[in-house]
Amino acid sequence: TLAERTNLAGVRHILLVLSGKGGVGKSTISTELALALRNTGKRVGILDVDLCGPSIPRMLRVQDSAVHQCDSGWVPVFVGQDKAIALMSIGFLLERPDDAVVWRGPKKNALIKQFVTDVAWGDLDFLIVDTPPGTSDEHISTVEALRPYQLLGAILVTTPQ
Question: What is the pTM assigned to this prediction?
């Protein structure tokens, strides 16, 4: 649809951050990468699709922010004094951010698709997608929703053990 094309039309590169297991530092890598890119003058967005553990809002100290609607969808939360990082996370949509999200596959997949298509990112140099741990349905949904766009690639986060 037109909305799908326009919301990601201004995003030059999309980068998925993945891992085979939890607790390896995906959210930390995503956050640090976004901050490093911002410090080089890039316009950066983070899409936090880690539905069960949305930690990026807390890492960037915006966990009390709210997401608003506009004509083209959700307006992401802009981080920092320079507002140079746009962030969308399930954490902004929960009543209490520490609540565990227990959803079945179809509902999770629908939310991921909505996150991909319905966030008004504007012009970004990089969109960093922080994924849940593992190799689940959510990853397939995320990649399929992003398939029409030019994916830059993926960063696979591992630990020695």
Answer: 0.85
